[in-house]
Each structure stands twice: as structure tokens, then as C-alpha cells.
Design a protein that fits this description.
mainly alpha, two-stranded antiparallel sheet, two-stranded parallel ribbon, 61% helix, 5% strand, elongated
């Protein structure tokens, strides 16, 4: 195919610089499988409907199958002058079966409905893979949590020690974030699961096409309802990038905790050598570069989302060439999320937690302040008053240079006569075991949460 399909309208060829500027094959050749699958389904429908001769339809399908084998084997010559993946595949098809037969393939379709069909097909393949990667990370969390149900660690608010919790409970908080991420991807997949092919450039096509047959052949659950919307809609791109951005944000939060927890100051966990790096000048260093890169790449994914939103915000209906720019960011987003999930799965599954160090930090008596207030509340004192009483005791202990554990029963009763001797026997474990509300950190609740988590990843 030496001449562009639309060249008949023009007297002069495209400027070589503009050829380079408008070419997208370096990016959209990622869609070659989907383009060939959609073209085969389209050709078979055209033949079945009598729109093109059955013999020509069979030749087209055979030729496209040969092209697919060549690309898969790495024997295909991609040419920038053919603009995009579609032009390259059709150009090779012309070489294989001749221009007359190959030229029938584009009957009843436009580049506009063709490219958006390919992109939806690509996401129908990739999103379940991403969901599987999230599930793999969730499984790693479950396995770590199962070994640390009774490992205590300070829970934090404002990055200040707050109350003791089970380490498993903390890890399962990240599991819940990822479960929402999986749901968002499934939701996006449900919405994008419709066939645009048959919409033509924007107004539909004047042939007796069977769009439902093409949808069935390609695995779409429905056909698009409006031809103008079908060719110009990229909401599904934004949705996927938004879901990916949220998931990357969750990975970044976990990465930040790993950075903190593996620091000398916390020393709650140790990095496996296979998931750490060293310093070019300081021999003692063991750096959490994997976590830091995940944290850094989160901003890149955010950028792709903002790029898509900005590109779409001023587009009049229907198709505009701006939409060519939807793919680079989407492909990069999916690749970044996929690699980040894989890296985090390895990082987390090989992380070693220092139970003694965590337990010692969780034994900080200041973390029992709320339990002391609850002790008074159970004796009948309004919690607001109990809060004030314990606050004064915290200040008293600090003024003496100690902590709540250093106060005597006389000290406690000096603040409130409702204190009894059992207030002195409070421990971090008692505090954790007392949190029996649904979703709480009590060990029995953590066992329930783990059973639920296992079921969620197994059922899918």
C-alpha cells in the first residue's frame, strides 16, 4: 500500500515532517492482536451478511491469520509511512491477497470505530490480568498476616503512637484497599464491555451489518447505542486510569510504611536482599529503593490521568485526532501498575517483621490511655469526663519523667476514686483483645477477617 486510503482528495503528498508528527505506529502497534481479531470478525460478518463475497471473506481471514503469525514471530516490517497499526496490517494484507480483495475489508467501518474497538478489546484482555496481579498481592498480605495475628504493633494517627493493634489487622487494612481496587477495575470492565464497530465514522453505516454477531465473536456483552458517542467516547480510558491512580496511591501508602518500618529509627521490619539496593559510597546501606520507586511512579500515573482529562475536556462531538493521544498514557499506566504490583508482591512477601521490636513499641504505656478512660466509663463516669481525668494523669506522669505505667493506684485514685486495682493490670494485649467490635483488632475478629479475605481471593 504505497498510497494512503484518503490520498485521492489531495494533489500533494504529506510533508515528511508531518508524516513523522502524525505517525502513531510506534505506540499503537501494541494493539495488533486486537486489530486482527476485530478485522477477522468484521470480515466474517460481511461475508455472512452477503455484503462481500464469501470467497473474498475467506481470503481476508486467511491473509490476516498470516499477518498475525508474522507479527507474533517478529518477522513483520513496521513502516512509519503507513501511519498506524491499522495501516500497517492492511498494507501487508494487500501484499498477500491483492488490493481488490483486501480493499473489501474496510467496507462498513471507519478508522474511528475500528480504533476504539481495538482499544476496548485490549482493555478487556488486560484488566483481568491486572486484577489477578492485585489478587496476588492480596494473597501475599494474607500469608504475612496469618503469621502475625498476635504480633502487636502500635497503631498510629498523625504518625504518633495511638493504640496497640494486631499486625495482621494492620496488614488487612491494606488488603481492604486493594479489594476496592479490584472492584473498581471490574466495574470499569463492565462499563467498557460494548462494541463500537458498526458505528462508522460517526453516523452509522448503510449496510445490513449484524453488529450482535460481531459482538458475540469478539466477546462483547452488548453493542453501543449511539454512533456519535461510540466513536468519541473515551470515558473508559479515564475510568481505567483513575482506578489505576487510586490503586497506585494505595501501593504508595504501603510503600511509605515499608520505608518507615525498615528504617533504623523504627526497625520494625527488614528488607530481603533481593528487594533492596546498596549505596555507591556508603557500604553499610540497605535501601528500600523498590518501595521508593513505587511511591515515585504513583505521580507518573496521576499525570497520565490528568493528561486524558485535559485532552478530552474541550473536544466537540464526534471524533477528533486529539484522541490519538489516548493510548500512550493508557499503555504506560497499565504497564506501571502491573510492574508495581509485581514488585510490591515480592517485596512484601519477603519482608521480615521484628515481632519483639514491635511488641516493645506496642507496650508503651501511653497507648493505654484510652483504655484507662474506658475503665472509668464502665464505672459510670461520662467518657468526656474520663478523657479529661486520664489526660491529667498523662501530664502528671510526664512531669515526673515517666509514663502511665509508673503511676500508683494512689495516683490514679487521686484523679478519680472510681479507679480500682485492675486498672494497674492493663496491658497492650488486654487493650487489643478488648476491641471486639465487628472489624476491630481483637484476635477473634482478626481470625474472622482472615477467613473472609481468603474467601474473597479464592472465590475469584
Amino acid at each position: 500500500m504505497k498510497e494512503k486510503r484518503w490520498a485521492g482528495r489531495f494533489e500533494r503528498p504529506t510533508d515528511p515532517e508531518i508524516e513523522r508528527f502524525t505517525a502513531s505506529v510506534a505506540i499503537d502497534k501494541e494493539l495488533w492482536r486486537e486489530d486482527i481479531d476485530a478485522s477477522i470478525a468484521h470480515a466474517e460478518m460481511l461475508a455472512a451478511q452477503g455484503i462481500i463475497p464469501a470467497k473474498d471473506g475467506a481470503e481476508i481471514v486467511s491473509g490476516l491469520t498470516t499477518v498475525a503469525k508474522e507479527i507474533a514471530a517478529g518477522d513483520f516490517n513496521w513502516r512509519d509511512e503507513l501511519e498506524d497499526v491499522h495501516g500497517n496490517i492492511e498494507g501487508r494484507l494487500v501484499e498477500l491477497i491483492g488490493p481488490e480483495v483486501a480493499g473489501r475489508l474496510h467496507t462498513a467501518r471507519s478508522r474511528n470505530d475500528q480504533v476504539v474497538t481495538d482499544l476496548r478489546l485490549w482493555l478487556k484482555r488486560r484488566l483481568p490480568e491486572l486484577e489477578g496481579s492485585i489478587r496476588g498481592l492480596q494473597q501475599a498480605m494474607i500469608e504475612q498476616a496469618e503469621g502475625h495475628i498476635e504480633t502487636l504493633v502500635p497503631g498510629y494517627t498523625h504518625l504518633q503512637r495511638a493504640q496497640p493493634v494486631s499486625l495482621a489487622h494492620h496488614l488487612l487494612a491494606h488488603f481492604e484497599m486493594l479489594e476496592r481496587d479490584r472492584a473498581r477495575l471490574r466495574d470499569a470492565l463492565t462499563r467498557l464491555d460494548e462494541l463500537p464497530l458498526g458505528s462508522g465514522a460517526l453516523a452509522g453505516v448503510p449496510y445490513p451489518v449484524d453488529r450482535e454477531a460481531v459482538a458475540d465473536a469478539l466477546g462483547f456483552s452488548r453493542v453501543s447505542a449511539n454512533s456519535i458517542d461510540a466513536v468519541s467516547d473515551r470515558d473508559f480510558v479515564v475510568e481505567v486510569e483513575a482506578a489505576a491512580a487510586v490503586c497506585m496511591m494505595h501501593l504508595s501508602r504501603l510503600a511509605e510504611e515499608i520505608v518507615l518500618w525498615t528504617s533504623s529509627e523504627f526497625a520494625f521490619a527488614r528488607l530481603d536482599d533481593a528487594y533492596a539496593t546498596g549505596s555507591s559510597i556508603m557500604p553499610q546501606k540497605k535501601n528500600p529503593d523498590v518501595a521508593e520507586l513505587i511511591r515515585g511512579r504513583t505521580g507518573v500515573v496521576y499525570g497520565h490521568l490528568m493528561s486524558s482529562l485535559t485532552m478530552l475536556k474541550g473536544l466537540p462531538l464526534s471524533y477528533n485526532r486529539d484522541l490519538q493521544e489516548d493510548k500512550a498514557g493508557l499503555f504506560a499506566t497499565v504497564a506501571t501498575l502491573e510492574s508495581s504490583l509485581a514488585a510490591m508482591t515480592g517485596l512484601l512477601s519477603t519482608l521480615t517483621f521484628d515481632s519483639e521490636r514491635m511488641g516493645a513499641a506496642a507496650a508503651d504505656a501511653s497507648l493505654l490511655a484510652t483504655d484507662l478512660a474506658d475503665h472509668l466509663a464502665r464505672k459510670g463516669l461520662p467518657f468526656a469526663e474520663a478523657h479529661a481525668v486520664v489526660g491529667k494523669l498523662v501530664r502528671l506522669a510526664e512531669n515526673r519523667g515517666g509514663s502511665l505505667v509508673d503511676l500508683s493506684l494512689e495516683d490514679l485514685q487521686g484523679a478519680s476514686p472510681l479507679f480500682t486495682a485492675d486498672a494497674l493490670r492493663l496491658t497492650a494485649k488486654h487493650s487489643v483483645e478488648a476491641r471486639t467490635s465487628e472489624g476491630g483488632t481483637a484476635f477473634e475478629r482478626v481470625h474472622e477477617a482472615l477467613a473472609r479475605a481468603r474467601k474473597l481471593v479464592t472465590d475469584d
